[in-house]
Sequence to fold (341 residues):
Amino acid sequence: IATFLGIPYIAVCKAAVFPALLYFLAFYVVGHFLAKELHIQRLSPEEIAAVSWKSIVARLYMLIPIILIIALLVMGWSPMYAGFYATLSVIFFSFFSKSMRFSLFSLVKALESSIRSAFSVTMACAAAGIIVGCIMQSGLGYTLSSSLVSISNNSLIVLMILSMIVALMLGFGMTTVGVYIIVATLVAPAMIKIGVVPIAAHLFPFFFGVISAITPPVAVAAYSIAGLTGASPWSTGMTSLKFAAATFIIPFVMVYQPQLCLIGSWPSIIYTILATGVAVTFLTIAILGYMEKKMKIYERALMFIAGIMMCFPSIPLRLGGLMLAGFIFMVQKKAAKESLG
Fold:
């Protein structure tokens, strides 16, 4: 993205930070309400007191490599240099603990594992580069971009839906980086042509390239987890899609409201982030179907509508969404008390 737009890498990180945090918010909401539904209790005060905070504080130095890589990126260092020095710091700080100390053999094994992990991404990028070169040299990229704009009839929402489908389909068998390079090359210029902010136009396909790892029929990440847990790959993939479904709205809000990418005045940025966070929460609750107790169909439908209303940059619509969700919450509270009584 930084190369395509000619901007610093850290600028891309800043633009992507809140869409990413909203993605994790959805999974926090999933964890919270699943725990309520399954009656998973919190740790008791005795269990919390048993935790040795002294041992935790003694290991905080393990965060230094992460802090270092962020600091170097903020200072303007390239990702390669920042990663290199952060890796050296990992090796250095490993000597602080006997259990984590590198031997020559373990260091070689770690380097081998890293190279193997990077190899698949490197090959995908190389292959994608060849494909992109062929597409651009043949003129197919311009033709496809123009075709998508033509098919969408200059409708941004239709173009985004088409872009989402393309990104998810390519993500069935490619890495996120490869999906981004191809889709961004083909679609981002068309979105920018319609009037989308460039960074949002490029983050849009990247976001769905990430999500493609957990969307069936080829949910690579979900299937990998199924292999570790022994669960059914298909049910794991469908469950992962269910849990992530609410996050599909984030890239659409990002395109229509670039404040989510920290573009605009700070009051509007904060307002948009909070409203989108509430929208993601409402949509996740509607998809899970549980709040204080199992939700009825009409309650889920109304909560889903409330979530959609929160996505629009209209104060009356957002107030209506909050009131609708508040009504569902009161209904759920009343039903929960009656079931206990």
